[in-house]
Amino acid sequence: MIKSMTAFARETRSGEFGELTWELRTVNHRYLEPHLRLPEELRSLDVAVRTRLAARLQRGKVDCSLRYVPAVGAVGTLRINHTFVEQLLAANQEVGHLIGRGAEPAPFEVLRWPGVLQQQEVNVDQLTTAALELLEEALDTLLATREREGARLEVLLRERCDRLQDSVTRVRVQMPEVLANVRKRLADRLVELRAELDPQRLEQELSLLAAKLDVDEEMDRLEAHVAEVREVLTRTEPVGRRLDFLMQELNREANTLGSKSADVAVTREAIEMKVLIEQLREQIQNLE
User: Fold this and answer.
1) Is this prediction's pTM over 0.85?
2) Which of 72, 152, 165, 277 has the smallest number of Cβ neighbours within 10 A?
């Protein structure tokens, strides 16, 4: 199944550690180009995240961001050591009683004492495990979105392949009449000169001209390339680069057909083919 390179996914997980949220956004690009934004607590995940992205994605520019919100009163937050503060205030009262000058300390003076404020350490292992598991879930969602968009694009690509094949068929049907008309027009123009020209030489020249106008090879290659596009669309591996190459080949044959055309109808068909090939190329740019 073909996959689009354009997709978005967001996954969130909450726990004792707080809340983690991954956001993945991909757009078309020739190669895999990840851009990571990680919170300070999880900077060490950089290599692991890149490895997982490379294992699941082949092409595309990937904006990958992780947001971390610690749990209130838990991970990474300040808390007051109530027991220590109570002991400190009791000692303050006792000292005031002994010296006869009791006074309540200001709150900020209490906060300055070492040990009053404590910061709970982050459980890095737990946080890392949760973040990587959630990344895999986000990648699952992203790939499912890419497959759905790829299926939609495949319908459009096959429809344009059908129209391209129809155009080739119409040219094949028209060519015998086109060649006959060309020969007739040339013969009519030269009818007055027949007396001065060698009939055998004239026939040779007409045959050479007909050979130059013959587009059977171009038609054969166009049909072969269209058939290969259809076959490539059935593959499971990434096919974007292969299809892009086939668009170049199709465009080359359509250009040759246009340059050989000696009939308005065939010229119109060549133009229609080029329009269809360009539409195919634009859509293929979004495929992995």
Assistant:
1) no
2) 72
Contact 57, 32 (CB under 8 A): yes
Question: Which whole-number Å values give the CA distances from 93 to 11, 89, 101, 115, 156, in the listed order?
Answer: 54, 6, 9, 19, 83
**Residue 140 belongs to what H/E stretch?**
helix 124-189
pLDDT digits (tens, 9 = 90+) for 75-121: 455 667 677 767 777 777 777 677 766 667 777 676 676 766 665 56
Q: Which of 81, 102, 85, 82 is nearest to 93 (CA)?
A: 102
What pLDDT is stored for residue 125 in this prediction? 85
Please give the structure tokens belonging to residue 76: 């990474």
Residue 121 DSSP one-character state: P
Cα separations in angstroms, 35 against 26, 67, 142, 259: 10, 15, 16, 46
**CA gyration radius for the chain?**
37
Domain assignments of the chain as residue spans, ordered by start = 7-73+123-147, 78-119
The CATH code belonging to domain 7-73+123-147 is 3.30.230
Altogether, the residues listed in the chain come to a count of 288
